[in-house]
Amino acid sequence: MVARAKPGTAGHDSPAPAGGAPRPPPAPGARGGRLAERASGPAPGLAGSRAEVGPQGGGRSRGGRSRVRRRQDPRSLAYWGHCPLRVRRGGAMRKAGPLLALSAGAWRSVRMASSGMARRDPLANKVALVTASTDGIGFAIARRLAQDGAHVVISSRKQQNVDRAVATLQGEGLSVTGTVCHVGKAEDRERLVATAVSLHGGIDILVSNAAVNPFFGNLMDVTEEVWDKILDINVKATALMTKAVVPEMEKRGGGSVVIVASIGAYFPFPGLGPYNVSKTALLGLTKNLARELDQRNIRVNCLAPGLIKTSFSQVLWKDKEREESIKEIMQIRRIGKPDECAGIVSFLCSEDASYITGETVVVGGGTLSRL
Ligand SMILES: NC(=O)c1ccc[n+]([C@@H]2O[C@H](COP(=O)([O-])OP(=O)(O)OC[C@H]3O[C@@H](n4cnc5c(N)ncnc54)[C@H](OP(=O)(O)O)[C@@H]3O)[C@@H](O)[C@H]2O)c1
User: Fold this and answer.
1) Residue 368 lies in a domain
2) CATH number at residue 319
3) Is 3 near ligand 1, meaning CB less than 6 Å away?
4) Which of the chain's termini has less CB crowding within 10 Å, N or C?
5) Does residue 202 lie within any of the structural domains?
6) Sheet-wide strand order for 205-208
7) Domain range spanning residue 297?
């Protein structure tokens, strides 16, 4: 059964953005929420270069033998036992102590920087829109993007869910605002874009996470209305939401889109035919958008979660016996958590993924994922 927007929710006229006063624009460059529009059918559901040279720079000796030190950790005694900076006598050794410590610290910093460990706020000053982000996977993604430095505009159909999610994340000191957006409504999509532009001056990131599943049963029993609903929200709205943000991303010189599909795109879940098909379509949408938008410096990638513990998927894990049988198809024999979907999305949106587009990353605990 399709749930209709209630007054004050998706159909609401121009709801005020949640989250109070916005931060200044960056330089150029809820619980209880559910996919109410679902029926009894559930959704299926970085180190870096090791220190290869010594602190002396690793030049060559007269004999031509490399003084390059391999596979030794500058923090280890063995490493410093071979180091020219070593001073053997007691007093001098003591004086050298702080120097050695300093060198080791600096060396560690170099290693961390080369591995990205020291890089903080990889999404600093980025503006991110996340649809369907007041609960579950979307909420975890919104939180992670904000933790990684982005200004995040969260959204879903219901104002109270938006208010609750914004309050929670602002309470954690994160730069988060929100507005109502039912992704199936053109005026809501436009308002979401306008809210981000007016609060933060532009858009760099879109995470398209909204989906519905109002049907459980055989494909032969699916009505035209159900097909329309699932394809409208899960596929068409994703394409139109992307279309709405692209002009704003272009003004910023590029951007990143992540589309949330499902392991059901690869591995059809029984009884969820139309939902599975819609998610397979998102793999194709990702490829097509990536190809079309690469000239505009916009990357488009996809996340395919496996079974993640949210209210959307509870039919699959609420019953213990069913949960155990579902774990059988996973290499990692447990159900995933929303947070486990969030880091990869932040990575895909960051400069670390600057050469990745048109790809789908499965976060499915090892569930089979081949078309
Ligand atoms: N959980 C899983 O096992 C799993 C597995 C694979 C893929 N996925 C995918 O992950 C995404 C999120 O699922 P979830 O499990 O995190 O769901 P969830 O915990 O039930 O959260 C659903 C969110 O979507 C919002 N929402 C529902 N319909 C919307 C619409 N038409 N427009 C805008 N927002 C809407 C809800 O808020 P309101 O009620 O306020 O609108 C809520 O914030 C979906 O695309 C789903 O297909 C989930």
Assistant:
1) no
2) 3.40.50.720
3) no
4) C
5) yes
6) 176-180, 151-156, 127-130, 205-208, 255-260, 298-305, 360-363
7) 127-363
